[in-house]
């Protein structure tokens, strides 16, 4: 399995939970306040929603290693993101 971390260094890092080693980094501009992996991460795409001091939410795709979307609309830093649970 995987888990993700984010920090004030602007890096979101995906980790291999079995090996306890990083497998992928996303470098963002500004501090990362929150990161949450999609509950559907085992599908065709494995997205991580990331909130930063930039007032946007970025969706990072663990499968492709690229940013898939930037969601604008906040006027202040984003401190919390959560995916809706899978039913």
Question: Which descriptors apply to this entry?
Answer:
87 residues; mainly beta; three-stranded antiparallel β-sheet; 7 strands; 47% strand
Descriptive overview:
This protein is an all-beta fold. 0% of the residues lie in helices and 47% in strands. The radius of gyration is 12 Å and the shape is globular. The two termini are 21 Å apart. The model has no long low-confidence stretch (mean pLDDT 90).
Quick rundown:
With 87 residues, the chain is an all-beta fold.
List the secondary-structure elements in sequence, H or E.
EEEEEEE
Report on the biggest sheet: 4 strands, antiparallel
Mean pLDDT: 90
Secondary-structure content class: mainly beta
Structure annotation, total helices: 0
Query: What's the overall geometry?
Result: globular
Strand content: over 45%
* Quaternary structure classification: single chain
Whole-angstrom Rg = 12 Å
DSSP strand tally: 7
Question: Which strand order do you get reading across the main beta sheet?
Answer: 4-5-6-7
Would you spell out the secondary-structure blueprint of this structure?
Blueprint: E1 2-6, E2 11-16, E3 21-27, E4 32-37, E5 47-52, E6 57-61, E7 66-71
Antiparallel strand pairs: 1-2, 2-3, 4-5, 5-6, 6-7
